[in-house]
Design brief:
alpha+beta; 222 residues; Glutathione S-transferase Yfyf (Class Pi), Chain A, domain 2; 54% helix; homodimer; Glutaredoxin; four-stranded mixed β-sheet
Chain lengths: 222, 222
């Protein structure tokens, strides 16, 4: 059986969980406290970060984009990267948009400050960072709306890794109740479509002790 | 003719210049002052970052990894991504290592502080950041040495995008004279091999007004 080393509110880990679900590949989940820098884990991934996927034969693959592309190449059905070089370039551009830009502008400011800091005993959340995160997410939700108004899914006519990446990030912020859904109907409609997929179900059952999600987090009709 | 929008000491731009050179694809170079947030450029790449490649037919592709994979798919000779899902995963893991980890730990601290800050009139360099960058690069040079001791190139028996990505980052720091080559013979041997490739030549001729490179920067026998 393959094993995915992950953290609960790591959007990068969530991205791989959804990909594994879409590909209908069975896997065990192992929580890795990356901040403890466990030696056995550093041997799997010298960068010391989750997610890491370990195949049944022991092969270890690190990084959410790397793992996702590897899974799409080795299990091509359903295809998640688009057809042809240009479509794949658009899928990859949007993956990077959310994995880097959204991560830096939103996830780190909200999930980082509200959850990770408390977990790691790094003091109280920085209210300036939280304000920045709450302001920044508006631009990203507007961008999602702009894209799905012109296309069925973020990168084109089919669900791709771009949607999965964006939804993984949004889901972490939604766990905190910090997504202003009321102002972004198009983005909300897109997220409702992803949220109702079987591959998303396990994410909605995540429950961090001492930091329960808001009531609407699990609700498919939010 | 295709056009590459770039900045001189952007390792991400340099990476694409080398890939275009390895693929023997002709291109025009356009310097983009991304900090001016020019409207025409933001239409090409809403993230506002270089590199952006614009094909002769007007198609724009953004981001160094995205452009590189696009070029490798549309111009497969010579192959730069490795053969098979596992080899490609290793190439991509190392690309990410240098594009994110090296960038954050070394490039931003050295090139960002010494060159970009001065360019943008953001005050004098932060000596703590520079000390951190100079300490961090040692680990990365040791890692390069560890890899090439076991393999011919970083990801295996052939030159791949992993080598190109690493060399693009290292070349920017080398322009500042901040690579401690004397202590890292294996990494130095690897860099000498890349530096002598025709695809690298134009990088060695870069010359930023007011910030000339050290004498050894262009020297193939450094």
């Amino acid at each position: 059986m393959r094993t995915l080393y992950h953290n609960w509110l790591s959007p990068h880990s969530r991205k791989v969980r959804i990909v594994l679900g879409e590909k209908k590949l069975a896997f065990d989940l192992e929580v890795e406290k990356t901040w403890e820098r466990r030696e056995g884990f550093l041997r799997l991934n010298p960068a010391g970060e989750v997610p890491v996927l370990v195949e049944a034969n022991g092969t270890a693959i690190s990084g959410s984009q790397v793992i996702s592309e590897y899974l799409d190449e080795s299990h091509p059905t359903p295809p998640l990267m688009g057809a042809g070089p240009l479509e794949r370039a658009e899928v990859r551009r949007l993956c990077q948009w959310f994995d880097e830009k959204f991560d830096r502008e939103v996830t780190v400011n909200l999930v980082g400050e509200k959850i990770m800091k408390r977990f790691l005993g790094l003091g109280s959340p920085d209210s300036t960072a939280i304000r920045a995160g709450k302001a920044n997410i508006n631009h990203h939700l507007a961008y999602i709306g702009y894209l799905v108004e012109r296309r069925t899914w973020l990168a084109g006519d089919h669900l791709t890794l771009a949607d999965i990446t964006a939804a993984a990030h949004v889901s972490c912020v939604d766990y905190l109740g910090d997504v202003p859904w009321a102002n972004f109907a198009l983005a909300k409609d897109w997220y409702a479509r992803i949220k109702s997929r079987p591959s998303f179900r396990s994410l909605l059952q995540d429950h961090i002790p001492g930091a329960p999600p808001p009531r609407h987090y699990q609700d498919l009709d939010f």
